[in-house]
Structure formats: structure tokens, C-alpha cells
Amino acid sequence: MSDTDDLDSTGGDDFDPEAWADELERQRDAKDEHLAEHPQSPIPQAAREEFDGLDYFDPDPDYRVEATVTVHDDPETVELETTRGPNVEYQRVATFTFDVDGERELAVYSHEDGPLFVPFRDKTTGQQSYEQGRYMEFDPERDLATGDSFPLDFNLAYTPFCAFSETFACPLPPEENWLEVAIPAGERAP
């Protein structure tokens, strides 16, 4: 579940860090409530009574960075391995280039016209965050174009459902999306 409508629009000069942090906390509370109560929650039924919410890094606007978009006019089909089961095909539709302790890149994928999907690993993976990596999803208000500036908010990074239940098969971040830097933002390891 990723509710980013109010957080992933272009920030620019009107970015209000206090309003952003309040909205992020509101969305985190809503997600915790969903995981605790929804019949299709990945939290096993037996564990829901003791579930008191996910563990998050504190909101940090330093990890809400402006990325430069490069759109791939002829998207390549790539197969991503999953935690269990067959590989799944995605289209590599764009690349985000951004600065976090130096210039970095992340491939951006799409699957069956779904949201933009950015699976990644970083130096917190397997220590402070889930051992298989984390995800970000974005549903931009318009089609992206090469050269666009896009707010890439790592505070929205979330743990895939397979971390909570073996009934889920989750795509693994490909090596091209392994960042050689720690990103202490978003969800921590469950």
C-alpha cells in the first residue's frame, strides 16, 4: 500500500517541510491501521492483536531529493527475480538521476500500466531495513518527459509484503538499483 498523492507532487519553492512531515505521519498512521485491521493485511491474523505499527525512520526532508528524469522511448523488458515463484516481467521506462552523497541513479519500472515502481537496496538493507530491499511507487499527475525534475522521496520507501508473510512473492531489486550509500528514510525492518 502506497499513498503518495499528497507527497509526490512537484515541490519547488512552495515545499513546506512542516506540512510535508505532518502528511507523512498521517499516511503512516493510516497504513498502520490498515495493516492491523484489513482482512487482506499481510500481517498474519495471529500476530495482528500484538501489532502496534511499523517502525519508521524519522521524517527527513534531506531524503526528499529532486531527480532528473530520463525517459526510455523504447522501454526494455526486464525480468525481476522474486522472493518465491517465477520471475516477473517489467518495462524499464525511465531513469532517475539524483544526488545523495554523490550522483546516483535508479531505474524506474512499470508493470501492466501500474504506477512507477522503484525497487532498491541501500547500505541499510539487511541491517536497519528489510533484507531483500524496499520499494517506492509513484503515480505522477502527468507523463514524465526527459529532463523533468521529479521529487524522489525516500521517506516513502516501504517494505514489501513478503517481509510479513510467505504467501506473498515480491520482486527483488535488480543489481542496477543497489545504491552504495545508506538511505535512512522510510520504513525500517519489521
Number of domains: 1
H/E element sequence: HHEEEEEE
Helix-residue proportion = 10-25%
The tally of beta strands, per DSSP, is: 6
Descriptive overview:
The protein has two helices and six strands. The protein has one domain (12-177). The chain is an alpha+beta fold. Strand 1 and strand 2 form a beta hairpin. The strands form two sheets. The chain has a four-stranded antiparallel beta sheet with strand order 3-2-1-6, with no helix packed on it. It has a two-stranded antiparallel sheet with strand order 4-5. It comes from Salinirubrum litoreum. Residues 1-22 have a biased composition (Acidic residues).
Write a compact overview of the structure shown.
With 190 residues, the protein is an alpha+beta fold. It has one domain.
Q: Layout of helices and strands, plus pairs?
A:
Blueprint: H1 17-37, H2 45-48, E1 64-80, E2 88-99, E3 103-110, E4 116-120, E5 134-138, E6 149-153
Antiparallel strand pairs: 1-2, 1-6, 2-3, 4-5
List keywords for this structure.
two-stranded antiparallel ribbon, single chain, DUF1684 domain-containing protein, 6 strands, alpha+beta, 190 residues, DUF1684
